[in-house]
Amino acid sequence: MLESTTGNDAAGVPEPGIGASGFEVAVAWHDTVVVLGVSGTLDMVTAPQLTDSILTSLSNDPAAVVVDLTGVEFLASAGMTVLIAAHEQIGNSARFAVVADGPATGRPMRLVGIDKLLTLHTTLDSALEAFSVK
To answer: Are β-strands 33-42 and 24-30 bridged in parallel, bridged antiparallel, or unpaired?
Structure first.
């Protein structure tokens, strides 16, 4: 993969681009519910990191998994694919929900029909309330 630089080639400072928006997955437990708070750009470069975080969380046998996309600035199809795959992998072993609202996350998920496959919430509080975690 080629790495572009800003006008100063000698400095070698990468130019922000795909996957360069400070992507992060923060994991928090609320009783037996694991919340993965995602921020930054969720695309084909960063999607594997979310997959790894979900798989690691599943090893602790949560009752429910919530992926909170509130901090996501851009959601690509690769990110949506990770969510669908996680939902299928979790199956009946735990409950699964996604927090997505607004033009960057909720709108694209509704446009492609993911809201018909996954449980979407507009806030983390509503997702936690649905799983009876306060």
So the answer is: antiparallel
Model pLDDT for residues 76-102, shown as the tens digit of each residue:
999 999 999 999 999 999 999 999 998
The domains located in the chain, with CATH, are 24-130 (3.30.750.24)
Residue 12, classed as helix, strand or coil, is coil
Cα 73 to chain center, whole Å?
Answer: 11
Pairwise CA distance, residues 8 & 53, whole Å: 35
98-123 pLDDT, tens digit per residue, is: 999 989 999 999 999 999 999 999 99
Helix residue ranges, H only, 1-105: 47-58, 77-90
The two structure tokens encoding residue 43:
């695309």
